Amino acid sequence: MRTCKGCGSPILWIRTEGGKSMPCDPLPVGYREREGARGKILTRGGHIVSCDFTNDPTAETGYMPHFATCPNAADFKKARKKG
Ligand SMILES: [Zn+2]
After folding, report:
1. Hey, is 33 helix, strand or coil?
2. What is the CB neighbour count within 10 angstroms for residue 76?
3. Dist. CA 74 → ligand 1 center (Å)
């Protein structure tokens, strides 16, 4: 598993339906899809959906894009460009 160059957290790369790889937090989180919600989640199928996050164990789970949670997101974006 790779780690974030910004903060050192483990990163899970998930391929989106658009064919790009997106760095995500490796722990799945519960969500409920809702159009216009501020949260973004990457589903297991590679779809990016707007959602509200929930702790409900019956909810769908997906992966949070790491740039949303990284404490060093600014550094992280620079690191991403370098590849
Ligand atoms: Zn990070």
Report:
1. strand
2. 19
3. 9
Q: Tokens 């990284």 identify what position?
A: 70
With contact defined as beta carbons under 8 Å apart, do 28 and 63 qualify?
Answer: yes
pLDDT tens-place string over residues 20-61: 999 999 999 999 999 999 999 999 889 999 999 999 999 999
Compute, in angstroms, the gap from residue 15 CA to the centroid of ligand 1: 18
Give the N- to C-terminal CA distance of the chain in Å, as an integer.
Answer: 16
State how far the alpha carbon of 59 is from the alpha carbons of 28, 50, 62, in Å: 11, 14, 10
**What count of Cα atoms within 13 Å lies in the side-chain half-sphere of residue 8?**
0
Question: From ligand 1's centre to the CA of 78, what distance in Å?
Answer: 11
Distances (CA, A) of 9 to 12, 25, 62, 66, 67: 10, 8, 18, 9, 11
- pTM, rounded to two decimals: 0.80
Q: How far is the CA of 60 from the centre of ligand 1 (A)?
A: 24
